[in-house]
Amino acid sequence: MTQSRSDALVVFGVTGDLAHKQIFPALYEMEKRGALNAPVIGVAFPKWSVERLRRRVADSIRHAAGGTAPKNNGDRRALDALLSRIKYVSGDYKAPATFAAIKQALNGARRPAHYLAIPPSLFETVIRGLGAAGLARDARVIVEKPFGRDLASARELNRVAHAAFAEDSIFRIDHFLGKEAIMNILYYRFANSFLEPIWNRNYVASVQITMAENFGVKKRGAFYETAGCLRDVVENHLFQIVALLAMEAPSTRDYGAVQAEKAKVFEAMLPLRPSDLVRGQYAGYRSEQDVARDSDVETFCALRLYIDSWRWAGVPWFLRSGKCMATSATEILVELKPAPQRLFADSMPKHGRANYLRFRLSPDAAIALATRVKTPGKEFVGEQQELFLCEQLDGQEMPYERLLGDAMRGNGALFTRQDAVEAAWAVVDPVLKKHDPVHVYKRGSWGPKAADALLAPGGSWHNPGADECGC
């Protein structure tokens, strides 16, 4: 597969919420930047006219702009240009006639990118349909997460995908990887030489990653009943952060080199045991729409993870995510080991944390380094303070804008490879069915207290926003 740019974008599920909330605004921004330059064929089951789809696209753009239409001439021209690219095919994904209509709508385009913004249960159906219709030749396929729901289903999905597409033509999209703050982890790790000597088991005591949301499942109860927090967030989003933090330096910034090092991290993760996992469910979840009254699905998940590599052997990684928590924020805390000698009485704190490096990924982006400094006076007494860098990310690309653009260019650096997907599922597979019941936790809290037992005696979770300054 060459790195030729895709000459058309086919969006399956074009009438759905994902398209309305994320894809149309991303395509609009690509149009504004002059980065689209291809027809957009929407495909879905409803018998809409192309005019109705274009109205929905325009409504999406207004909604993304806070309810106002594009104001300046350049933005209006970009919207008009985007709408002129839109075509629509209505049909059943199981019917060969639908794919024949797509081929006709492509009107001779030879390198289309097929984006599957559809429920995972339909991935295999559409991929088979594309292959049977000859629409996979010289094409790319972009698949939304989750990539399977366990190791066996991930392997089967990969088998079906490879029957129609080469691996370098399959783009497994996780919008989380398109965020500027996530990309900065890779840059920060390998652009700063001071970090390397201490970035290992000899100096790092533990790593904590928290992704908290202060809202519930909203109207996604039916989806959450099939997924849960471990599948929806931890196995993909948080594992990707772990890979960026734990990976060795790639030989180049080439797609293959970066992906190979990330895959090695997943392969080195020890499989989880039930004692490594605490599952929680916020009070009232069972009363949500489309949720079973006796549901044991977790809306909170905390786990203890080990990476059996030369660099990280013995270092615990604590991952935590949940809904209806105290705030919405994502942070990483890399805690360093205390100084080896108690030259000063307070240099090895009995309470609180030793030195640490903190990455805030959302709602804003920041990097902080906590160091001890002497307080004024004759005594050698100090306090810990943060050196704090707040990053201004104005003008950054939207995650879907960046990822769709990369996929159409054939740049797979921000996507997930087959071996990495299967290795990540192998880590969580042992606890997907074998685990303790959920612990109910109070809305607006930091989850069930049972999660504290994962930490070492005397340890505590880092709660984003609770003990540091912000931007």
Structure description:
By secondary structure, this protein is an alpha/beta fold. The protein folds into two domains: 8-144, 3-Layer(aba) Sandwich (Rossmann fold); 177-454, Dihydrodipicolinate Reductase, domain 2, CATH 3.30.360.10. Helix content is 32%, strand content 20%. The chain has twelve helices and 15 strands. The protein has helices at 17-32, 50-64, 73-85, 96-106, 123-132, 151-164, 180-191, 221-226, 228-246, 255-268, 399-409, 418-428, and strands at residues 8-12, 40-44, 86-90, 112-116, 140-144, 170-173, 204-212, 277-282, 300-306, 316-322, 329-336, 356-362, 365-374, 382-391, 439-441. The strands form two sheets. It has a nine-stranded mixed sheet with strand order 14-13-12-11-7-10-9-8-15, with helices on one face. It has a six-stranded parallel sheet with strand order 3-2-1-4-5-6, sandwiched between helices. It is globular. The mean pLDDT is 90.
Integer tally of domains: 2
Low-confidence region ranges: none
How many helical elements?
A: 12
Largest sheet: number of strands, sense, barrel closure: 9 strands, mixed
CATH architecture of the largest domain: 2-Layer Sandwich
Q: Any idea of the CATH topology of the largest domain?
A: Dihydrodipicolinate Reductase, domain 2
What's the alpha carbon Rg, rounded to whole Å?
24 Å
Number-wise, the strands total 15
Order of helices and strands: EHEHHEHEHEHEHEHHHEEEEEEEHHE
Oligomer: single chain
